[in-house]
Amino acid sequence: MFLEGCKKYPSFMENLPQIAAKQLKEGKLKKEDKWVLNWIIGLTDKAVQNILRDNPERIEEYAKDYKKSIQEASKDFEKEFGKLNLSFPLGKGSFQRLNWQNIMLLMSVVGAQTLTIRGSEKSTYGKIFEKLILGSLLHALGFKLVNRKDNKLKSKIFWLSERADKRESDATVLFTLGRGIRFDIGFIGRGNPEISLDKVTRFERDMEYNEKNIL
Description:
2 domains
């Protein structure tokens, strides 16, 4: 992608963060295209949620700050290690020269891509394990696993992985009509610290009557 861009567009590397931010702000993108554009400005899907709060209006301003940070860091690298001059052949006798700034941008894209892949795998295996733990525990406590969509039982039942208006829950237990518990579990350990506040604030105190929020 980088080499093709350098072949076709002058100053491609220098303008890449702004190009990515503009396309992200315009929206209507395939998931794979959105991922690549996020990587260009050092973001993953999770980072977009946490840093930009899913607000596309913040993307261009963030891209400017991101580019500025890379420029400042590249100056520090040059001061510490000296100038960096690399050349990549583009064909037909032309070359693309890369300095610290270009290399840092490239490495940031690789880093964001790696986090996306690792995060996706962690999420996949985590959800499987969560179902195993919760499903086994609730079954042992005498609750029956049901499919919420076609369930007709009214007590001592549970279902797994429900996405409500606010956040996703890993399991929901129904004791009797009107009395239930929603579960959200997380595995916290060395190398994977999670802030407890994130867990305890996932569910808000809501009450609905006739599909209307009354709290």
